[in-house]
Amino acid sequence: MARTARAAAVDMLDGVLGEGLLLSQCEAALTGLSPADRARAQRLTAQVLRHVEPTDRLLKPFLRKAPPLTVLNTLRLATVELVLGEAAHGVVNEAVNMVRHHRRHAALSGLVNAVLRRVAENPSFGKQPPQRLPFWLRKPLVDAWGKPAVSAMEAVQAAPAPVDLTLRPGRDVGIEGAEALPTGSLRLAPGVQVSALPGYATGDWWVQDAAAALAVPLLAPQAGERVLDLCAAPGGKTLQLAAAGAQVTALDVNESRMTRLRDNLARTGLTAEVVVADALDRQPEAPFDAILLDAPCSATGTIRRHPDLPFVKDGSELEALVALQAALIDRALGWLKPGGRLVFCTCSLLPEEGEAQLAAALARHPALRVDDTLPPGADPEWRAPAGGLRLRPDYWADRGGMDGFFMARLAR
């Protein structure tokens, strides 16, 4: 049987749900597919991961016991496609054929056919709530913001994230159907092919979530300032800093991710010194006017873009991440000129990696203070009670939400 996007999607689901792999670790399943089919397989996989819980509820009445994982994932994929309105004939037939040609599960093709024909009679999740976050993550979020807020986040995470662009200052980009957000980002209409948009080749914009794009305006770099982008890859914030006229040093420990940063600098014609090194082992030649520290974190604020994370992570890495963040804050503060400023941010929903991390830094450094100046367009309601910005996926829910972030501007 010829390799298809659906077959690749099932293999990727097996990797995430069976082996605990991130989607980025499952890309071997895409080998041999055309670019269009690769993109489709990735899209299908993400759609299923956003709806595993409601899909299993829909399938449960038609299954006396759970089938082998590959068969169950085939059923999940077909069910989600049916719910999303794909033609039942094609969906059911390909699912049956995939199982029929599987060397170990061919005998279950009849089961797949029978179950999916029942699902096709009423392909709907009905009034089921959206998929819940795992307990290790949901509980601290409920403790911090309450059940209604967390349920609202889960509702946003059930849909694909829209694509946001950061515009290069002074460039006039006309993109049909795009929405100008209050903070200056441009949100694309669904289904737009990014690389085909005007201004791509000339570097008039770059893809960057609207929440992530707020960290640089919060830092407020000035032309000519020496600015360090610490933990810089993949480079959206580096481009913002360089476009503001700063003399930028972009530092990250990951060589492969810095390749993308270099490619984006080349496309946009912007310049920055690119350094691959461990910040904890490096000493810069001179202090900086400003530093942006987008610290390694649990990435729990990016689940709407990375729906594999709730199935792969369990919170066990948090203690080490929190310790690393604290060490990087202390390191960065030592690299600032007197009167310099530091923006600390994490794409995390967890207070441990945001509000609590800020409180601990202030306790360690009595001369440090939080500058509560808001970046342009930011809603005052996004202020965290003790300082900084707390951004959540349910903000701008009617527009498609935003990534979860904590960010704070610190000065001495």
Automatic annotation (TrEMBL):
Q: Does the keyword S-adenosyl-L-methionine apply?
A: yes
The SAM-dependent MTase RsmB/NOP-type domain covers 125-412
Q: Which Pfam families match?
A: Methyltr_RsmB-F, NusB
Output one GO BP term: RNA methylation
Q: Which SUPFAM superfamilies match?
A: NusB-like, S-adenosyl-L-methionine-dependent methyltransferases
Source species, domain of life = Bacteria
Cross-referenced PROSITE patterns? NOL1_NOP2_SUN, SAM_MT_RSMB_NOP
Does the record's keyword annotation contain Hydrolase? no
Q: Which residues form the active site?
A: 347 (nucleophile)
Q: Which InterPro entries match?
A: MeTrfase_RsmB-F_NOP2_cat, MeTrfase_RsmB-F_NOP2_dom, NusB-like_sf, NusB_RsmB_TIM44, RCMT, RsmB/NOL1/NOP2-like_CS, SAM-dependent_MTases_sf
Keywords of this entry: Methyltransferase, RNA-binding, S-adenosyl-L-methionine, Transferase
| Gene Ontology MF term list | RNA binding; RNA methyltransferase activity
Q: Where are the transmembrane segments?
A: none
Which residues does the annotation say bind S-adenosyl-L-methionine? Answer: 231-237, 252, 278, 294
Recorded family membership = Belongs to the class I-like SAM-binding methyltransferase superfamily. RsmB/NOP family.
Q: What is this protein called?
A: 16S rRNA (Cytosine967-C5)-methyltransferase
State the organism named in the record.
Gemmobacter caeni
Organism classification: Bacteria, Pseudomonadati, Pseudomonadota, Alphaproteobacteria, Rhodobacterales
